[in-house]
Amino acid sequence: HETVQSEEYPLVVSTWPFVEAVRAAWKAVDGGSSAVDAVVEGCSTCEELRCDGTVGPGGSPDENGETTIDALIMDGLTMEVGAVAAMRYVTDGIKAAKLVMRHTEHTLLVGEKASEFAISMGLPGPTNLSSPESMETWTKWKDGRCQPNFRKNVSPANSCGPYSPTHYLQ
Amino acid sequence: LHSHDTISMAVIDRMGHIAVGTSTNGATFKIPGRVGDGPIVGSSAYAVEEVGACCATGDGDIMMRFLPCYQVVESMRLGMDPKLAANDAIARIAKKFPDFLGAVVALNKKGEHAGACHGWTFKYSVRSPAMKDVEVFTVLP
User: Fold this and answer.
1) Res B1 pLDDT > 50
2) For residue A146, which residues of chain B lie inside 8 Å, CB to CB?
3) Residue B24 annotated in active site
4) Among A92, A93, A61, which residue's Cα sits nearest to residue A84?
5) ipTM of this model?
6) Pairing relationship of beta strands B112-118 and B135-139 according to DSSP bridges
7) Is the Cβ of A34 closer than 8 Å to some Cβ of chain B?
8) With a CB-CB cutoff of 8 Å, which residues 83-102 of chain A face chain B?
9) pLDDT surpasses 80 at B82
10) Measuring CA to CA, how many Å separate A28 from each of A41, B12, B39?
């Protein structure tokens, strides 16, 4: 597991075997695109392909069955950053992040206001981010008494909410 | 508890400029409003032109407390090679949270790259001019 050296630029590296995303980024950067634009190409490809169900719409339903999007882009030359978090109703996470970076002085927009910004700046939406698969996953989870979940020190511990804090830590 | 996957990508262009990006729909069955490491700069990704870049994936609720990608880039700035920097960032988290799942990829200005992971076997993908197509690298915990 040594460090691997590559010969020269350009270069694309991505988590996981998201091969199509890397190919898309490579095609862009090898054709002369900037690093920022190539990152957008690569990450957008995974959003369209719904890589592993964990990128883009149609996956990872929350406790309410809703899919929301988190994305970030950073330019290592200027140290500019744009990001969106818990963005609803908009599928294009990385493009929304780039809009924050390019067209605002801010770094991070969140929630429904991030969606409003993204749509106002030209991205498609509002869109339902659920899919038949994500709704089936969520329905099974509800039927299984909402297990597992990310709650702790709450009552009830072994079924769905509403939850209230338990007091044994006091 | 759950697996958390994210695309986190770094690109060096023909000018030698570096950018990073991430995109994710987060953790399944998260509490509504939860934000993970994906949109947190220095956690899921970080890039500094003069040094290199880092991409991370895994249990974002834990990882975002350690800013692992900021740590990786700063370690490389101080002279660590990518493998050592990646291992060090993961080890800092594992020391406090031995059950966490996570991985980082470190990439320096010379195009040298390496991964480190904890709790699972990690794979990352690379395309360089020396390769005919994308190559997938496997990193064992």
Assistant:
1) no
2) 29
3) no
4) A93
5) 0.97
6) unpaired
7) yes
8) 83-86, 93-94, 97
9) yes
10) 7, 11, 23
Which stretches in chain A have pLDDT values below 70? 1-7, 168-170
With a cut of 70, say whether residue B45 has pLDDT above it: yes
Indicate if the pLDDT at residue B7 is higher than 80. yes
Nearest chain A residue to B48, by CA: A76
State the number of CA atoms in the 13 A half-sphere of A39 facing the CB.
37
Please give the Cα distance from A85 to B6 (Å, whole number). 14
B101: tokens are 């799942």
Distance of CA A8 to the CA centre of its chain: 30
Contact state of A76 with B14 under an 8 Å Cβ cutoff: no
State the CB neighbour count (10 A cutoff) for residue B80: 18
d(Cα B53, Cα B17) in Å, to the nearest integer?
Answer: 11
Evaluate if pTM is beyond 0.80.
Answer: yes
- Please give, rounded to a whole number of angstroms, the shortest distance from the CA of A170 to a CA of chain B: 23
Structure tokens that stand for A18 in this block: 């998201």
The answer to whether the CB of A100 falls within 8 A of the CB of A82 is yes
| Mean pLDDT, residues B43-62 | 97
- Could you identify the residue written with the tokens 């994210």? B6
Sign of the C-alpha dihedral computed for residues A17, A23, A24 and A30 taken in this order: positive
